[in-house]
């Protein structure tokens, strides 16, 4: 057994202390605080030190990694027991176990497999299982209801968040990962409604299938794939399957459009980098606004604000339509000659920021219309006029992207920031177009 695997097992044992929280009550932080003190000031040699030491710890002669892990768990334990508005105990336990056992599962997979996708799957699967069991155990001890479907959904969401953060951070940043997962799960507990077994099962199956397809086809990097499936999971949990399908339409069609005649686009200098595999920044640039809209919709549902719900639905549809419209206009339009700068209509070389072709504009309008149609069928839009507003939002977002490309992209803004502003413009345009109707 390798030292990294033994260390991951030791951290998993420490994380299991979270299960004592229901019995300890307001003292739930005590076991982790004790571990943090021992790691920082007492254990500086011997078998325990060798078990938990990371490379940097040996240089410092102190178990900084274990101390940070335990302090993060201490902080979450205090949030779950001390404030007037407390983090649910189940969210605290899930956050700790997702990371502790997820790391163990990832290390086990790493020891046997040489594939980053399968290693990440080991992290997510083990973290999901441990967090689900932990939540059930806490509910049984406290006598609270134990909805297995909801616990599994929450555990899967936490595992995806942790896995995504682990692609961006180092192992020493695990405390930040744990705290972030804890707050995400706390928010989900507040905003998400009841979760059925069917909803949980389909959610997991859908995200696994689409995530693997995106990674296998090369339409997304590992981090980009995790970002996409996480957004789908949030959309299902806070909105419903209709919201997720609208997002899937963009991810799938946009990804395939990027791969369409990729070699030819590469020769013309208009192809996406990294063989068309979109990363986290690209996915978030196109989908951050839609994520905010889903969360806003869930919040308005919680407080029963119908007008606010309608506005967030329109913002969601408009932002996705803008992302689809912009992607198709760029990927299809880049295959044709004679682009013109949108601000002056003068001919420019292919690939010039802000350059458009009539074929690309038509493709963008068709993409926006497709999202509008899906939104009308799948989202709780009240009228055909609302669907038309989504279409308008998509075309407006595409146009804003081109205008920004012709004026400030490169000198003042990067592509991801431009994508974000374009989708924001699409969301706002959809809302504004609907208000007078």
UniProtKB/TrEMBL annotation:
It is a multi-pass membrane protein. The chain crosses the membrane at residues 63-82, 89-109, 121-141, 148-169, 175-192, 204-223, 229-258, 362-379, 385-405, 417-435. It is found in: Membrane. It comes from the Archaea. It holds the Pfam family DUF92. Keywords: Membrane, Transmembrane, Transmembrane helix. Signal peptide: none annotated. InterPro entries: DUF92_TMEM19. Belongs to the TMEM19 family. This is DUF92 domain-containing protein. It comes from Haloferax larsenii.
């Amino acid at each position: 057994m390798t030292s990294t695997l033994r260390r991951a097992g030791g951290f998993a044992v420490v994380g299991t202390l979270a299960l004592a929280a229901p019995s300890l009550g307001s003292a739930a932080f005590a076991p982790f605080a004790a571990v943090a003190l021992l790691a920082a000031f007492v254990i500086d040699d011997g078998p325990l030190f060798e078990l938990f030491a990371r490379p940097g710890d040996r240089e410092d002669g102190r178990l900084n990694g274990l101390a940070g892990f335990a302090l993060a768990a201490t902080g979450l334990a205090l949030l779950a027991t001390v404030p007037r508005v407390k983090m649910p105990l189940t969210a605290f336990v899930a956050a700790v176990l997702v990371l502790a056992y997820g790391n163990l599962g990832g290390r086990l997979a790493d020891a046997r497999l040489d594939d980053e996708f399968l290693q990440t799957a080991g992290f997510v699967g083990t973290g999901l299982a441990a967090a689900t069991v932990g939540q059930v155990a806490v509910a049984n001890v406290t006598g609270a209801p134990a909805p297995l479907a909801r616990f599994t959904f929450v555990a899967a969401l936490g595992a995806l968040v942790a896995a995504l953060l682990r692609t961006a951070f180092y192992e020493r940043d695990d405390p930040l990962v744990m705290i972030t997962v804890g707050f995400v799960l706390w928010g989900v507990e507040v905003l998400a409604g009841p979760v059925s077994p069917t909803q949980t099962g389909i959610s997991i199956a859908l995200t696994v299938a689409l995530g693997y397809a995106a990674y296998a086809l090369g339409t997304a990097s590992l981090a980009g794939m995790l970002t996409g499936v996480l957004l789908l999971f949030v959309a299902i949990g806070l909105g419903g399957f209709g919201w997720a399908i609208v997002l899937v339409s963009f991810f799938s069609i946009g990804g395939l459009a990027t791969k369409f005649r990729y070699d030819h686009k590469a020769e013309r200098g208009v192809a996406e980098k990294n063989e068309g595999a979109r990363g986290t920044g690209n996915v978030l640039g196109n989908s951050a606004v839609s994520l905010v809209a889903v969360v806003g919709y869930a919040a308005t549902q919680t407080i029963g604000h119908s007008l606010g719900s309608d506005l967030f639905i329109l913002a969601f549809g408009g932002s996705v339509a803008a992302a689809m419209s912009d992607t198709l206009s760029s990927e299809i339009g880049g295959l044709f000659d004679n682009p013109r700068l949108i601000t002056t209509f003068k001919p420019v070389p292919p690939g010039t920021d802000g350059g458009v072709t009539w074929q690309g504009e038509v493709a963008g309008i068709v993409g926006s219309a497709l999202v509008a149609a899906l939104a009308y069928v799948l989202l709780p839009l009240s009228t055909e006029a609302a669907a038309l507003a989504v279409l308008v939002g998509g075309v407006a977002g595409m146009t804003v992207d081109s205008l920004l490309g012709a004026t400030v992209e490169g000198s003042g803004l990067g592509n991801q920031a431009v994508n974000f502003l374009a989708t924001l413009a699409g969301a706002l345009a959809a809302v504004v177009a609907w208000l007078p109707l």
